Amino acid sequence: MRAKLSERGLTVLLAAITAAGPVSLGIYMPVLPLARADFHVSVAAASMTVTAALVAYAIGLFAYGPLSDRYGRRPVILTGLTVYLVGVLLALLATSIGMLTVARVIAALGTSAGVTVARAVLGDLYAREHMATRLATISMVMSIASALSPALGGVLGDLVGWRIIFAIQVVLAVVVGLAALRWLPETLSHGDGRRADGVLRASARLAKDRAFIGFAVQTSVLYAIFFVFVSLVPYIFRNLGRSSAEYGSWYVLLAFSYFCGNWYTTRHSFRMGLDRLISTGIWIQAVGAVLGAALAWFGLWQPIFIFFPWFLIAFAQGLTLPNLTAAGVGRSTANAGAASGMLGFGQQIIGALAVQGMANADTKTPIAVTTFIAGGALLGATIWWLTPLHTRMPPTHPLPPR
């Protein structure tokens, strides 16, 4: 018999399950140049280990959401954690860049289950505003892990080698998997989700929902600029004579800023409302991105000038992401898995395209990367500003947590 978790305990468990994906990316990015040098391949070839994983992650997000509506949350999460374990074991033993890419794809397919289905679990239990606060709480726990993972990956990569980061992930997959097996409950108990045609109908409705599409566009912009930053800035650091460990140390401060944005959301989501928090975050993100591009164009390439604008952007994303996700999933509470999966699919596909599109950009300076980020942030802000209020945030009647 499975032990019953408290609400706080379930939040921590879901945070651990969800963190596998960001940790897998964060701990790998600082050592990516080391893996590239070890296999003697180009930047574009090494970037495929990121791009292919992001595409696989997107496919997993799209598939696991409806599957969890059909078969339940618990079995899908447990399956994903098992696939993740297989992937990181293969990555640990990789003998070529091709094998490493395949292993990263398998691991990404596994971690995507936790991200999308954890959101669906919250959608099963809470109304929109309550869900936003829970998502922000999970993001706060995740941000600690995400902050430590690049620093840990950078230091251990320089000291031991890039393979150590996959040994750490093997341990993570085993520990989280056993905890989920022991304590994760099944929360799906309503709606037409257990019928495949019901899931398809829900997905079709969401694809025609202007409000849902608006939330999906904004989260996709957010992920695109974030993935480009974390994928290419490690190369910029090395080209400027900086180490992987130094990049990881700066990333800790960035993650702390994101943590602060999440914390602010947990304290003020009910008072300010989702639309106001999202709007504030989108405009702060745009200001930070433009500032970063301006500093780069003026030749200020020291780490403080690369990361300081991202303190603003990370705080802004901490405000927007939980609220955008809650608002999007809240558009189809009876099929929260499908809504979560479609949101995640868009995020990862756009992010993957952005990373691969920028793979051949100049990384000798931060100019190209910061210019792309500024353009993306301004595009997102413009779309949000031009979207009518009643479309981007239609009125709802919040329900108490179930």
Helix/strand/pairing class, anyone? mainly alpha
CATH class type: Mainly Alpha
Tally of contiguous helical segments: 15
- Overall number of structural domains: 1
Radius of gyration (Å) = 20 Å
Q: Give the termini distance in whole angstroms.
A: 23 Å
Order of helices and strands: HHHHHHHHHHHHHHH
* CATH H level, superfamily name: MFS general substrate transporter like domains
Report on this model:
The protein has helices at 7-28, 32-39, 43-71, 73-92, 97-125, 128-159, 164-183, 196-207, 210-239, 244-272, 274-297, 303-329, 336-357, 367-386, 389-392. It is mainly alpha-helical and 402 residues long. It has a single domain (7-392), classed as Up-down Bundle (Growth Hormone, Chain: A), CATH 1.20.1250. Mean pLDDT is 82; it is low at 396-402.
Keywords:
402 residues; single chain; mainly alpha
What's this, in brief?
The chain is an all-alpha fold. It has helices at 7-28, 32-39, 43-71, 73-92, 97-125, 128-159, 164-183, 196-207, 210-239, 244-272, 274-297, 303-329, 336-357, 367-386, 389-392.
Mind sketching the topology for me?
Elements: H1 7-28, H2 32-39, H3 43-71, H4 73-92, H5 97-125, H6 128-159, H7 164-183, H8 196-207, H9 210-239, H10 244-272, H11 274-297, H12 303-329, H13 336-357, H14 367-386, H15 389-392
